[in-house]
């Protein structure tokens, strides 16, 4: 390779290294883009009713903030009360279980007595683990503060993008060669439509799961049924793992009433998950986003490995966007055209009779005409 090729290779390697080092920042930026896209589409729907852009954006943001505040208002107080009672009832339950084991030892042969567990010894063995967990409380607090700062960063970036989405879109399009910018603008349109479809399908699935959970938990008489149902619907955003996580607090609260309710809650959540995965998601997502189940699972494993919990939470929108870019750029523009001898289309440049120097509208500079036309197209789409 010559000197120029070596310089290009080194530049690519350095760019990949820098991108890897700032991967978490890029993921937060993507989260802000997804949230801004959602609120922007909602604001556009309000604009169809005659609202001005500024008022429509403020209304969309107000609905989002009200939803977040309502979520925490419905979730935190019942959980705090129930888990405070749980910390009192669990040791009491251990005491009852230990008394039952003592009574059992008096009724069985002496040869089987050593095989019956001793609760006190188990608690002593678990004591170092508990101390270690409590000793890491500072790390937990610092991690919580870091999470809050990341959430604030995402919200600030969302507000900046939502204030003027056209400007940020034009900047992104200009990162590509002039001959490919119109194509990139079309790909961005498809990404926006697909993200809107995924968000719509996800909210429909969340609502159905929350409704089924609320009905089932209310029939079983579980406390904080509304909060548990909302949490189950929210965690449904994380396929495969979200329903598994949501059953843990439900089983813990069911333990306060009666042990048999723990098994009933587990069966209820299993049935809901089967209905959601076999009926709701295929019907809803098939109309919105077409993703193979194996691709979804592989994407989750990939993003959680490299990006942690945030990557797991954003695995589906990342997969939706990556699928569109791979399909449009790699497959259609590269692989499908591999070896095809197609002629380049000639561009028709319209030269006005009296060109204006301030607009740079000249036949000698067709790239300016093309870029200006792309910018006009972007503005028309946003309007």
UniProtKB/TrEMBL annotation:
A Pfam family of this chain: AI-2E_transport
Keyword annotations from UniProtKB, A to Z: Membrane, Transmembrane, Transmembrane helix
Listed GO biological process terms: transmembrane transport
Region Disordered, residue ranges: 353-383
GO cellular component terms attached to this protein's record: membrane
Topology of the protein relative to the lipid bilayer: Multi-pass membrane protein
Main localization category: membrane
Membrane-traversing stretches: 6-35, 55-76, 147-172, 193-214, 292-316
InterPro entries to which the protein is assigned, alphabetical: AI-2E-like
Compositionally biased region (Basic and acidic residues): 367-383
Locations listed in the record: Membrane
Family: Belongs to the autoinducer-2 exporter (AI-2E) (TC 2.A.86) family.
Protein name: Putative PurR-regulated permease PerM
């Amino acid at each position: 390779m010559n000197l120029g090729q070596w310089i290009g290779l080194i530049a690519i390697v350095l760019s990949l290294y820098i991108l890897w080092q700032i991967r978490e920042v890029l993921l937060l930026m993507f989260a802000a883009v997804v949230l801004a896209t959602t609120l922007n589409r909602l604001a556009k729907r309000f604009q169809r009713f005659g609202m001005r852009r500024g008022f429509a954006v403020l209304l969309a943001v107000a609905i989002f903030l009200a939803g977040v505040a309502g979520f925490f208002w419905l979730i935190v107080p019942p959980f705090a009360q129930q888990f405070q009672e749980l910390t009192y009832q669990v040791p009491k339950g251990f005491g009852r279980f230990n008394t039952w084991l003592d009574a059992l030892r008096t009724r069985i042969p002496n040869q089987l007595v050593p095989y019956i567990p001793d609760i006190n010894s188990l608690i002593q063995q678990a004591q170092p683990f508990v101390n270690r967990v409590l000793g890491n409380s500072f790390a937990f607090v610092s991690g919580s503060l870091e999470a809050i700062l990341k959430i604030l960063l995402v919200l600030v970036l969302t507000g900046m993008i939502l204030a003027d989405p056209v400007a940020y879109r034009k900047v992104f399009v200009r990162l590509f060669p002039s001959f490919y910018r119109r194509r990139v603008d079309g790909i961005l349109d498809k990404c926006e439509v697909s993200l809107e479809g995924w968000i719509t399908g996800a909210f429909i699935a969340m609502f159905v799961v929350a409704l089924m959970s609320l009905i089932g938990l209310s029939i079983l008489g579980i406390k904080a049924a509304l909060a548990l149902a909302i949490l189950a619907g929210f965690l449904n955003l994380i396929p495969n793992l979200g329903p598994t996580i949501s059953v843990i607090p439900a089983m813990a609260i069911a333990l306060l009433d009666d042990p048999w309710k723990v098994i009933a809650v587990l069966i209820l959540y299993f049935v809901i998950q089967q209905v959601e995965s076999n009926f709701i998601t295929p019907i809803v997502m098939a109309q919105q986003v077409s993703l193979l189940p194996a691709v979804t699972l592989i994407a989750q494993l990939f993003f959680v490995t490299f990006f942690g919990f945030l990557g797991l939470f954003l695995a589906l929108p990342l997969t939706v966007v990556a699928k569109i870019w791979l399909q449009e750029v790699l497959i259609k523009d590269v692989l499908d055209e591999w070896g095809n001898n197609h002629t380049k289309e000639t561009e028709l440049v319209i030269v006005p009779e009296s060109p204006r120097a301030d607009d740079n509208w000249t036949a000698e500079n067709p790239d300016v005409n093309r870029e200006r036309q792309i910018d006009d197209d972007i503005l028309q789409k946003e309007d």
